[in-house]
Amino acid sequence: MAITAAMVKELREMTGAGMSDCKKALTNTDxxxxxxxxxxxxxxxxxxxxxxxxxxxxxxxxxxxSDDAKTASIVEVNxxxxxxxxxxxxxxxxxxxxxxxxxxxxxxxxxFMAEPWIEDSxxxxxxxxxxxxxxxxxxxxxxxxxxxxxxxxxxxPYIHAGGKIGVLVKAKTSxxxxxxxxxxxxxxxxxxxxxxxxxxxNDISDEYKAKELETLKAQAKNDxxxxxxxxxxxEKMVTGRLNKELKEVCLSEQVYVKAExxxxxxxxxAAVSKEFGxxxxxxxxxxxxxxxxxxxxEEDFAAxxxxxxx
Length: 310
Prior knowledge:
about 300 residues
């Protein structure tokens, strides 16, 4: 497969690796982007593991929580520009979308878009969106939503940077929302800041562990410092690294960012539980970041003007 400059550029933006290393990775993997990322990681050439696409799309994340704090929704609605994302009309619209998502029975975005609009049942969510696009004069997209329930506890939201990141954290507890809100909001802020992938170690799949272990083994074997080390020593090295990495991707095991004594998030929640004399058990979280995985259109205004002038 021919390796193009565009492919090299995309891989460089994804990994932070050098241009020549990116070209070598693509050549060695026959142009397979995912395999090229793994190749760079295994050879220690990826400077940072970045998201698969640049976070560049505009818009906001919004949440809606029921009065009893047992049902909630989180939505992401995209716009073309940050100017529109900060517009009050757009923000009010997204809040209504979140309200609809909290009450929806739709299992996916396709079914959601086909539902009657909450404020006018004569049109669907999709038809109303088209009307909003015509009114605002900019393309918009209801990208995703998630409805969350916790009948045996409470759900607490957190919105960061005016909607750039939204989080819902739920916990099973006999305590009221007024008692656990501070604790769960702190946990939600942790999720926003540290972006965990799993709730507890029990939630990590064997497939995920195996893939990470193979990557760490390849990195260790490709490191010249380990050239003379036997396989059993390398095995112990990478097992220790894997265990450390797994702690970093699990919310309950992460070091609580507001702690002064390096306690974990799980230990922090346990301490609050003890303080109130009643268990608080984290049961899930959702984190949306605006534009996650989307690539923003790069505007070339000079070329656009030139084209209009013929």
